[in-house]
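sorry for the late reply, my laptop died twice this morning and i had to redo everyting from scratch. anyway the thing you sent over, i finally got around to it. pasting the sequence first so we're on the same page, its 342 residues, then the predicted structure underneath. double check i copied it right bc i was rushing
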Amino acid sequence: MPKHDIIVVGASAGGVEALKALVQEFPANLPAAVFVVLHIPAQSPSLLPEILSRAGRLAATHAADGAPLRRGQIYVAPPDQHLLVERERLRVVRGPRENRHRPAIDPLFRTAALAYGPRVVGVILTGALDDGTAGLLAIKQRGGVAVVQDPKEALYSGMPRSALEHVAVDYCMPLAEIAPLLARLTGEPTQEEEVYPVSGQMEQEVRLAEIDMAALTSENHPGTPSAFSCPECGGVLWELSDSDLLRFRCRVGHAYNPESVLAGQSERFEEASWSALKTLEESASMAKRLAAGERERGHAWMVKRFQERETEARDRADVIRSVLSRMNGTVPVEQESRESSQ
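ok and here's the structure:
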């Protein structure tokens, strides 16, 4: 009878220390393959396999595309690549970002659930926002086990809290208790996969993560069109509903949970604001230069025209600069004094 031999772990902010504490308690003969996604910048080298190998008894390595799956091994998602699980082999692909991350937790969890159903144990550790929630829900839908670090002790409670709010979690416990639980679960039998059929939506989302061209070019999108646009590519976001979890995905595969949509929109707004500020500053400088040239030529009416355009550009720039200052928690001194006098 099959047992829980596929363990998938997701972490973000504060995750290195949490992962070290987890793997150092794994027994050397753990009869399961362990897969780890940690959010890291795309251009940063990842030393996580070396760190985890030194911390515990199991060897850790970056996953390689097409490599066979072996029990008693820890596989780490490489930078800027999604780690996916198929039957007895790994996939490493540069697919669409999910929740603004690559690697992301949801694609790993979802593909493991599709491939192994009740044999999967999903673990959510410390992290901000809500990546991992949809993937953990997929694991539960396929009969797997959901484990979440107690958010009260997590360095960042966002991911654990999101999972607890939307998923019928089997275990919520302190980090120190998770590894012994996982070791025990690997010895317990599971139900047969046929008891938990795969939904068409889950299958389609897995194909999108795998950059399946038929799925990417299909006009049959999962969900229904929403009024929102993708923060990354600007395309229409399609609205999906898993239980009470609202999610979004665009036609090219970018996927978001609600908090990630808000974070992405805020990021794009800031980028647009800086771009607008740069344009206005350049316009003001150009108008000032043109006014100086017309002054030398004695064209008073042209000088006035360009001075008005300079003033208009600087006034608009001041408004945007004020917004950016507030976003960063600061208010220019001159504006603060003006507001206090009103």
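Residues 258-297 form the longest helix (40 residues).
thats about all i looked at so far, will dig more tmrw
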